[in-house]
Every structure is written in structure tokens, then in C-alpha cells.
Description:
It is a single chain. It is built from eight helices and five strands. It is α+β, with helices and mostly antiparallel strands. It is globular and about 50 Å long.
Amino acid sequence: xxxxxxxxxxxxxxxxxxxxxxxxxxxxxxxxxxxxxxxxxxxxxxxxxxxxxxxxxxxxxxxxxxxxxxxxxxxxxxxxxxxxxxxxxxxxxxxxxxxxxxxxxxxxxxxxxxxxxxxxxxxxxxxxxxxxxxxxxxxxxxxxxxxxxxxxxxxxxxxxxxxxxxxxxxxxxxxxxxxxxxxxxxxxxxxxxxxxxxxxxxx
Length: 203
């Protein structure tokens, strides 16, 4: 199965921001691009370069491939409202992102593995597709062996001080969350300039 791998946070360092979601991201220690020319910094990008980097950054934050990203953008452009905001909402509604937002996975990569291994149910039906889109009112529940549940609770304890998604209603003791409403642009606090992505695809 194809996917995006992250070796030593190289993608984070390339984008200049943590896209892995881990608290111990290497970009905090080495805020320069990877490779022999990294210490020279990022240089001065062109307009197209800025747009491309923003698209790559968002792709890597959510862990989606180019074909998937184009599909999401196409759907966003057809929806009502602002295209950039609609794109981010679609990405936020991915099941793997929901698991990450619940605070039971240390990164979105780990959240994807949790989904693929069959530890997640939506409305009491097992779902193993990370790209599954949740809707308002959906109930997301985690299950697994005692060891897995202990892992979930350990990560929950580690992330208890992090700001949780307000569009999710958590029941941590039951490893469960209800989608109170669909996420809005104001719910996404990451440094993303989605208008640059819209400009890139509008050419």
C-alpha cells in the first residue's frame, strides 16, 4: 500500500514547520532544510515556489498523496463557500485525523496505523480506511487488546495539556468521541495559507 513515510523529520525540516505532529520534532532542534546545503537556509522563493511549498506542506501535514490531494481540491472547488477553507475542512474530516485530534495517537502516522489495524469503529461499525470522512453526529470509538487500550490511555495522558478539537466531544474514559459539528476554518490553528494552494491550482 502506497503512503508517505517520514524519516528523521526530513519533511518537517524541508517545510520549516512540524508536519509530523510529534512533540519531539527535529525541526525544533534543526530549523534548516535537510541535505548538504541545509545550513544555508531556505533562500528567497518565487511566487510559484511559495504556492508549491504550501501545497506540499499541507499534503505532508495530513499525510495524503498527490492524487488524493487533487481529488480533495476538486471536491472543495465544487462546494459552496471559500474553496481553501472547504479543502481544509475535508482534510480535517479524515478518520485518521480525527483519531489524532482525539489525542490517542502521538502523530497522524500512528493514527493511520490505528485505523488500518481495525481498532476504530464509527457508529459501532468497524472502519479500517484512514481517508473515511466523518459527519456531524458520528460516534468514533477505539477498541483493541488491553495492551492497545493502555497505549491509547498513555498517549491521552501525555497530550492532556494540548488544546483539543472543539468540534469533538471527548469521552476519554471510554476511548470515544462524538463529532459535535463539522470543523470550520477557525478550528484549524496550524500555520497554513490555503489561498496560495487555490492560486496554484487556478493557473
